Amino acid sequence: MSQVSATQDTAEALGSAQGDALLGLATLGKTALALALVIAVILLCSALLKRVGPGRTGHNRHLKLVASTAVGQRERVVIVDVEGTWLVLGVGGGEVTRLHEMPAPKPDELPPSTADAEGFAARFASAMRQNARNTFTRSSKRSGEDV
Questions:
Q1: pLDDT for 89-103, tens place per residue?
Q2: Which spans are transmembrane here (predicted)?
Q3: Among 66, 57, 59, which residue's Cα sits nearest to residue 103?
Q4: Residue 91 and residue 78 in contact, taking contact as beta carbons nearer than 8 Å
Q5: Is residue 75 left, alpha or beta, with left meaning phi > 0 and alpha meaning psi from -120 to 50?
Q6: With contact defined as beta carbons under 8 Å apart, do 101 and 87 qualify?
């Protein structure tokens, strides 16, 4: 009889361990689900803020940065379009100084470098593509020589 009770005790212990493991997995699953829900809410809120954030309210529709260049470590010359008037501003040392004012040229009168909205970004992307193309071409030639 003691052998039967030992077997029953072992079976009960195994059943209890399996139940604890299932309970632990259920708790882990609930925690993972809650974490995924919190991350989804954060991503949803960030997408919503990007769509209707402070920059999208239309407050700056009358003010547009046309061009900017650095003339020192902290000084810049900036051209700003304010409702059809271009202001050339000197920015630096905690102050802004108007250097010149002129009517904005019509879009067909702009030189190509000023009319190009992408400018640096387009040139940089093109250079990166060319660099990647050259890198992959060299590595494929090397692997082709070894074979």
A1: 999 988 999 998 988
A2: 32-49
A3: 66
A4: yes
A5: beta
A6: yes
**pLDDT per residue as tens digits for the range 23-61:** 788 889 999 999 999 999 999 999 888 888 665 555 556
Ramachandran angles phi, psi of 106, nearest 5°:
-70, 155
Residue 115 has, within 13 A of its CA and on its CB side, a CA count of 8
Query: Within 10 A of 30 (CB to CB), how many other CB atoms are there?
Result: 10
Torsion from C-alpha of 136, 139, 140, 142, nearest 10 degrees: 160
Give the percent of the chain with pLDDT over 70: 66
Per-domain boundaries in the chain: 1-59, 61-121
In terms of phi and psi (left: phi > 0; alpha: psi -120 to 50; beta: otherwise), the region of 84 is left
Distance CA 78, CA 70 (A): 9
Q: What local confidence, expressed as pLDDT, does residue 123 receive?
A: 81
**Coil vs helix vs strand at 72:** coil
